[in-house]
Amino acid sequence: MKKTISLVMIVKNEERTLKRCLESVIQYVDEIIVVDTGSTDQTKDIAAEYQARIFDYKWSNDFAAARNFALEQSTCDWCLVLDADEYISNDCSDAVQTLLSNPFPAVGKVKRIDKFQGKDGINLEQSYITRIFPSYCRYTGKIHEQIVTDLPRITMDVEIQHDGYFQQTKNERNIPLLLEVINQSPEDPYYYYQIAKEYRGLERHEDAFECLKKAYHLISGQEVYAPSLIVNYLYAIMAIGKLEDGIAVIEKEQEFLYDFPDFYFAGALYLLELIMSDPGQYQHLLSHIEQYYMRALEIGDNGKEGSVMGTGSFAAHHNLGVFYEVLGDLEKAKEQYLAAAHYKYEPSIERLSLMAQ
Predict the structure, then answer these.
(1) Tens digits of per-residue pLDDT, 198-241?
(2) Within this chain, do residues 329 and 290 fall inside the same structural domain, yes or no?
(3) Sequential DSSP letters for 156-175
(4) Helices marked H in the chain
(5) EC number(s) for this protein (predicted)?
(6) Each residue of 216-235: b (16+ CB within 10 Å) or e?
(7) What is the mean pLDDT of the chain?
(8) Rounded distance between C-alpha atoms, residue 344 and residue 318, angstroms
(9) Cβ 290 vs Cβ 309: under 8 Å
(10) Most buried residue among 2, 148, 174, 183 by CB atoms closer than 10 A?
(11) Are residues 154 and 184 in the same domain?
(12) pLDDT at position 167, please?
């Protein structure tokens, strides 16, 4: 018998993005469960257009509780969980059916691409999260909740775009919850890592630094988010100018992060900041900047958890081009800009245009 699957969502005032989400997924699911936590816009009307089963739920500052209530409404064998500011961007029908028909039960991890505004423009960060699972599974955690299961986790060919934090923040909701969880679990590095992201979005760089420093000293290195945490720690060090703190991190983590392009990309930026802070002391590290960008390009954009797209390709090519241009080697600079322009990377296209004048 063919297995069935529900789309399960919790929503509040999502009229701007809900239609896009539902359009992207309706062909893959047998029913749609929408749990509304207090919308005052047209969210429920839009859900009704897609024959969703709609339930009201009183928000209690607990994401796991709300998600579990939503899961309880499912009448299908499997559940797919999405937020309204997410949408499926590839044809994943085969991937979904393969998981559902697998005689050996497992849960599915999907690739999520988070869009956010960086200093150099729009950035896209990749992560892999469990979103497809048997309907009896449940969540735990007041915020950044996780599925509790002993089933193996399989990475699926399902790609989800997420732009809920692009040019906007949800810190008024998230920070109090994260502080509460940190107070309850003060030795859990994951929540320091998450709250640091919130602080970074508010440009509270000192707070982000302190939380990432705490998290860095708590991680074991086995956490899937550990590479991203370390790279974010380097960026926080640069943001507040405590550059001496980064030397030990760079030296210690090279072996651990040998295949993470973001580490070498951030490392090159860090070394430039360090040299500029005291050229007399650190000028000898100048050649390492080139080496780090070359290493990032050698690794390439390999889709690692927490990696930002471009750190192993166009962004590294561009930054290496800037490095060569500053050194006066215009031929090498042009080569790197051309390589980045192949990806239609606008900053490199602009540099090539200026060089041609």
Answers:
(1) 999 899 999 999 999 999 999 999 999 999 999 999 999 999 99
(2) yes
(3) EEEEEEE-TTTT---HHHHH
(4) 18-25, 43-49, 63-72, 93-101, 171-184, 189-201, 205-218, 226-240, 244-253, 261-277, 279-282, 286-299, 314-327, 330-341, 346-355
(5) 2.4.-.-
(6) bebbeeebebbbbbbbbbbb
(7) 96
(8) 11
(9) no
(10) 174
(11) no
(12) 64
Q: Which of 109, 128, 162 is a domain's end point?
A: 162
The pTM score is 0.93
Task: Indicate if 218 and 261 belong to the same structural domain.
Answer: yes
If asked whether residues 143 and 179 sit together in one domain, one would say no
- What DSSP letter does each residue of 252-314 carry, written as one string? HHTTTTTT-HHHHHHHHHHHHHHHHH-HHHHGGGHHHHHHHHHHHHHH-----TTPBTTTTTH
Please give the structure tokens belonging to residue 98: 């393969």
Grouping H, G, I as helix, E, B as strand and the rest as coil, residue 108 is strand
Shared domain check, 259 and 349: yes
Asked if 16 and 87 count as a contact pair (C-beta separation under 8 A), the reply is no
Triad 142, 146, 149: Cα angle to 5°: 130
Token duo for residue 297: 């390009």
Q: What average pLDDT does the segment 244-265 reach?
A: 97
Dist CA 317 CA 314 (whole Å) = 5
